[in-house]
Automatic annotation (TrEMBL):
Active-site residues, as the UniProt record annotates them: 192 (proton donor)
Name assigned to this protein: Adenine deaminase
Known role: Catalyzes the hydrolytic deamination of adenine to hypoxanthine. Plays an important role in the purine salvage pathway and in nitrogen catabolism.
Binding site for substrate: 271
Length: 329
């Protein structure tokens, strides 16, 4: 039995495995410019975040109907459950779908078909987090929030993703204020490729409660001290960092030093279909290649539930935390 954990940094569009991409392409009459799944997998050789994002957005062409989004999410939840994920807070990128003529309702209700039955079917509780694309305009983000208003009963929070450098958090001040006024929780990607200053800005200007990635905080000791003091969670994604060349090899990843510094680190998969592994695979990799001890893996699992948005269900959080403490490696 795998270690129980929460996954807090997971883009549902990044769980599109080549096999499902081809199946959905056929169902929807979409032509993919790859001969087969092997040829597609060979394209997963990324130089940086942008080269990944180009393929990530292109493959979304196969996602058209509620059924497609439901199948995508259900496949993820089945895989996650098999790797010990008990709770998943799932990102989605509505602008990438709206731009292709797929409506907000198709995306949210499609995802919800799978999320709504996830507990009964997979034993995984879920939350949905709507991300804005930071390389799109602030106006577009505000319009997207308006489009989402009929579906806010399904959406726990907002996030910020896509190309980071040159798109600082302050660009999205207004939409984060509007979302806060609507009672939405706030997170943002910061310090993946962008500088540590973007992490500080996300905290100060956007009022985020968690930082997605946050890897580059290590370049700013005063920021590290603040993150430790304020118990700000970081949703790290080790295998993603290797595949997108944020670190040279997994052995170079600062996770052990970050844990030693007292940072509230969590380990997540980001875009598992593209980056070589789901949540449990990331835990296995930091154990095998970064030398994290079993008790450090338990700390990461504990942190994942502490950092989760289970504040509306403390009884459940306590149950999950008890599972972590009782786990025998
Ligand atoms: O790792 C990521 N970083 C930024 N944007 C993203 N969108 C999907 N995955 C990512
Ligand atoms: Zn991400």
């Amino acid at each position: 039995m795998p270690l129980p954990k929460a996954e807090l940094h997971l883009h549902i569009e990044g769980t599109l495995e080549p096999e499902l991409a081809f199946a959905l392409a056929e169902r929807n009459g979409v032509n993919l410019p790859y001969a087969d799944t092997e040829a597609l997998r060979r394209a997963y050789d990324f130089a940086d975040l942008q080269s990944f994002l180009d393929l990530y957005y292109a493959l979304m062409a196969v996602l058209r109907t509620e059924e497609d989004f439901a199948d995508l999410a259900d496949a993820y939840l089945a895989r996650a459950a098999a790797q010990g994920v008990r709770h998943a807070e799932i990102f989605f990128d509505p602008q990438a779908h709206l731009a292709r003529g797929v409506e907000m309702g198709t995306v949210v209700e499609g995802l919800w078909r799978a999320l709504g039955e996830s507990e009964a079917k997979h034993g995984v509780s879920t939350r949905l987090i709507m991300c804005f694309l930071r390389d799109e305009s602030a106006e577009s983000a505000l319009e997207t929030l308006v489009e989402a208003k009929p579906y806010l009963h399904r959406i726990t929070g907002i996030g910020l993703d896509s190309a980071e450098v040159g798109h600082p958090p302050v660009k999205f001040r207004e939409v984060y204020e509007a979302a806060a006024a609507l009672g939405l929780r706030r997170v943002a990607h910061a310090g993946e490729e962008g500088p540590a200053a973007y992490i500080t800005e996300a905290l100060d200007v956007l009022g985020v409660e968690r930082i997605d990635h946050g890897l580059r905080c290590v370049e700013d000791p005063a920021l590290v001290a603040r993150l430790v003091r304020d118990r700000i969670p970081l949703t790290l994604c080790p295998l993603s960092n290797v595949r997108l060349r944020a670190v040279d090899t997994l052995a170079d990843h600062p996770l052990p030093a970050m844990l030693d510094a007292g940072l509230l680190c969590t380990v997540n998969s980001d875009d598992p279909a593209y980056f070589g592994g789901y949540a449990g695979d990331n835990f296995d990799a930091v154990h095998a290649q970064l030398g994290l001890k079993q008790e450090q893996l338990r700390e990461l699992a504990r942190n994942s539930f502490v950092a989760s948005f289970l504040d509306d269900d403390e009884e459940r959080r306590a149950r999950y935390l008890a599972e972590v403490e009782a786990y025998v490696f």
